[in-house]
């Protein structure tokens, strides 16, 4: 078992964070003056080949088991691949953000995994740490034939008490409920009262109101037709060996995605960018 090296730290006066080349995985972020915004399980694994429970896993080129329902590894290979650090800008002066950029291509993926996605691609992932956290994933089809892919920035947010939060911005949106396996429509703000695993069809900005931490986290996005909301609640938490039994109370996933029938189709030479932008304000 090969342990992962320590993540890179990037900072500037308005905020700081850490990110790994493994999975281009954002591990933490805090705007200056605020508690950390991202959640990582106390039981998270940190060895090569394992997904990391928390922060912002990149799901690519499929989501979960994929649309065929049998793809492995879950959520694709990007989050367990070693990305190349293209350039890293750490700003000490009064810069708006500290930026890191990562690149992954089909040539970086081992042959066995590539069999599941036999396409030529280049993925460029740019992370800006500052008063906001901006993460942009650009995928380019570098081959000669079109392909489709799913993607998600599977963001784990740290909350004071998941049973007291209200998630606003998806009112009226249609969603697929993965727990009941039914299509539903969201009537009011989302509250967490049981296992919650929903794929919303919405391009709108979402706000997570967290009265226990007296703050509101805003999740804005571009280039994304889906928002996924996930909280495993009690039984699912017990079933995960990288998730402490009571940790469901301190996290919620709000994911920026293009999945299911919103998979992205790229013609040869074409590119697509999806961006998630997090910000925090006082009061809920
Ligand atoms: O985004 C929600 C979800 O698809 C859930 O169904 C659950 O599987 C979660 O992702 C975590 O997936 P992981 O493979 O990281 O355990």
TrEMBL record:
Gene3D superfamilies: 2.70.98.10. It catalyses: alpha-D-glucose 6-phosphate = beta-D-glucose 6-phosphate. Keywords: Isomerase. SUPFAM superfamilies: Galactose mutarotase-like. Coiled coil: none annotated. It comes from the Bacteria. Its EC number is 5.1.3.15. Belongs to the glucose-6-phosphate 1-epimerase family. This is Putative glucose-6-phosphate 1-epimerase. It comes from Kocuria carniphila.
